[in-house]
Sequence to fold (657 residues):
Amino acid sequence: MELWNNLMMGFAISLTWENLLYCLAGCFVGQMVGVLPGIGAPTAVALLLPLTFSVNPTSAIILFAGIYYGVAYGGTITSVLINVPGESSSVMTCLDGYQMAKQGRAGAALSVAAIGSWIAGTISVVLLMAFAPALAKFALRFGPPEYFGLAMMAFGLLTVFGGGDPFKIIISTLVGLFLAIVGLDVVSGVPRFSFGIPQLLGGIDFIVIICGIFGLAEVFNSLEQEEETGLLKQKIRLKDMFLTWEDWVRSRWAILRGGVIGFFIGLIPAGGITTASFLAYLAEKRVSKHPEKFGTGLIEGIASPESANNAASISGFAPLLALGVPGSPTTAIMLAGFMMWGIRPGPLLFQNNADLVWGLISSKFIGNLLLVLMNIFLIPLFVSMLRVPYTILMGFIVIFASIGAFTVNNNLFDVWMMLGFGILGYIMNKLQYPIVPLVLALVLGRLAENSLRQSLMLSGGDFSIFFTRPITFVFMTAAILAYLTPVIRWGLKKTGYGGKGLNVESL
Amino acid sequence: MWRAEFIGAWAVTLLGLFIIVFSLPLQYYTELGPGPGFLPLLLGIGILLGGVVEVVKVFAKRKSAGQAPFLAPRSKLGLQMLLLIVVSFLLLPVLGISVGLALCTGAAMKVIGKHKLVPCVLAALGSAIFIHYVFGQGLDIPLTKGLIGW
Fold:
């Protein structure tokens, strides 16, 4: 009953004209971002975040949530029509989506992705409603050691799910932690690594870093890539968007399985929507009676990963809202937004800001519905956006990144610093140092340091505090196992048990 | 590419060393517990070790590395863009944010996108108006003004 009352309160908030408009704008921008090359959900949220200083936090978070799950819908269009994923979470959709498009069934492919995403998204919201408050209640037991353990686990899991060189992931995490501690030490008031520069005493603002590392770096990286011109010249009419009975029958279980897998992967800090879509595709292939046909244009091969990525993009809010720990780069940026608006996500958020939490959760029902309608009726508009040259788009990214950095303290020093981080982001990408661990560490850095120091103060400097409390023990063990994953993988490979890594070719 | 990776690995190592050196004057431990230098020192050591591992790994694969150029052919476009951004940022105090960034947009379209002059000028004009009215007036951001008062 309490759940129902909370949901009704949420709808009363999300159904106001103002919030409906923010939800619509978020979904539209998200869908657009998913389609446009060289710009992803973290970039879009990072560039728009500084512009919401004066916006009501509930409306702003509804806008950003719309962008986040809207991107998951939009990325499908490029996967199906040009065989290039608009977002990394749509990689798996390319395999069967493009084949379906070549067979003249692009409309059905886009439709099943949209409808599957909607069904899975709705399932995920219902599960989130039940799960997030319970998680928040559980987290009320957390003290500094538990929070430190949780942060360590989140960093550790990146080495499992992050992909790429584990040493580079660890280095990237450590650099993120270092950037987080620049400025005055909150306990002693001693300046650290500010070198007498007054603008650095307050620390390097998160917004300055993300505008550079996501916004500007994307411009440099995208300029090096050839523009895709392989758009299928296929006219998609409204009647092509409707699924046949056979399509429904074949995709129903794939949607449900994808939704459930996506929900649970999204709950894991650092799990992410890309991992969810990979695992859902794998699972679907495994349960299929004809796995050899995957990759030839099977509708299940689209329904499952698309449902999973949308479900994960929604359940990813559970650790953010209930624990204050983001599960992905986009939710990490949103966490910075919460801090900017003076709200601290975590267990008390459900008590102190119930209107925001339930307004956000209920807006996801509305957003998902808006997106499925947009995907059926506005596809030609989004397809036409694929023809926008990147050289026009990049100018606007530079404008948003520069003004975003400027708004933090209204000075040009931050704009120059943003340029520096843009160059850093570009170099990291070139040398294959992942950016996500840096961002996650940057956001959680202060929390991790404060909890570490508070824990050691409590224990009189005894590190065993991290292994004698049950919850902390679980988190720390998970973190250690995660960090040891590369060694375990290497050992398994040496003994002949190692399989291929999770990559598209191996599927 | 091998050379770039090697330089990158050394840069990480030097960053670790830099952090260690500058965290040494900070108090490592106080009577209350860990001091302000506690985490920086640990981070410095971690980054230094990570950098050393990377240097060794990159060095080990030097023979198998191909002859890929230090800069990719299309990196020239990125450098041109960087130059345009630096010039426009230098001009921001004189031209103001609206005009400076709008010029950057127009110039990038012309130099990198090779668009015709008219669309570039129109895009620059549109950008200046957009920045001035949306960011400056609509969102009330106190944008730096230039000589023409925008």
Observations:
- Residues 2-506 of chain A form one domain.
